[in-house]
Write a structure and sequence with these properties.
The protein is mainly alpha-helical. It starts with a helix and ends with a helix. Strand 1 and strand 2 form a beta hairpin. The chain has helices at 2-9, 13-22, 40-58, 62-69; strands spanning 29-30, 36-37.
Length: 70
């Protein structure tokens, strides 16, 4: 769920839903009550994409981005 994914990554469930709205994350499935389920690797990748986008828009140096990506 977004709460579990957020706890895993140290962010709020709202941040996980923002990643989904931004297109960084897709639910692996939905529960009976409509709760979304995410794959562990997809959550990690979405967090990475969100950080890279934030660095891009903040004007962070390309070398800093490369070090973070390594």
């Amino acid at each position: 769920t977004s709460a579990q994914a957020g706890q895993l990554m140290g962010v709020t469930p709202a941040a996980v839903l923002r990643w989904e709205r931004a297109g960084y994350l897709e639910p692996a499935g939905k529960g009976v009550r409509g709760q979304r389920y995410y794959e562990h690797g997809a959550v990690i990748h979405a967090e990475y994409l969100a950080r890279m986008a934030a660095m891009r828009t903040s004007g962070t140096d390309v070398q800093v981005r490369r070090r973070f990506a390594a």
